[in-house]
Amino acid sequence: MSERLLFLTGHLAKPRLEKILREAGLGDEAVHNIGVKVAALMTEAIIARRLSKPVKADKIVLPGRVRVDLDKLSAAFGVPFVRGPDELKDLPRFLGRGGA
Questions:
Q1: Distance from C-alpha of 73 to C-alpha of 55, rounded to nearest angstrom
Q2: SS3 assignment, position 71
Q3: pLDDT, tens only, 1-59
C-alpha cells in the first residue's frame, strides 16, 4: 500500500504543483489550496483553521519556505508534517521520482 500524501499550497502555486505531480506520475496525490495567495505565507494558525480534521493522508507536505513548527502541527492533526523543497521544480527529486 502506498503512502497517501497531501500537499498544502496557495492560489498561485496550485496549478504548477498539480502539473509537476502529474509529470512525476503522482497525479493522484491530494493538493489543498489553503486559501492564501503565496504559499510561503502560511502560518500555523491559518493551517489549523483551514485544514479540516480528520486528515485523510499519511503525510502532509508543506512548501519548503513555510516557517512553521512542524512538530506542533503533527501533534495537532495526528499526521506527520514535512517541509518540501524550496523550489517546486525540485519536488520530484524530493519524492524520489528523479528530476533536476
A1: 12
A2: helix
A3: 478 999 999 999 999 999 999 988 887 779 999 999 998 899 999 999 999 999 999 99
Residue 1's pLDDT is what? Answer: 46
Q: Are 17 and 23 in contact (CB under 8 A)?
A: no
Question: Cβ of 43: how many Cβ atoms within 10 Å?
Answer: 13
Classify residue 78 as left (phi > 0), alpha (psi -120 to 50) or beta.
left
Q: Which among 2, 26, 35, 37 is positioned nearest to 84, based on CA atoms?
A: 26
At 81, the amino acid letter reads F
Of the candidates 30, 21, 23, 22, which has an alpha carbon nearest to the alpha carbon of residue 3?
Answer: 30
Is the alpha carbon torsion for 25, 27, 29, 35 positive or negative?
positive
Grid cell at residue 89:
521544480
Record the cell numbers describing residue 76, joined without a space: 495537532
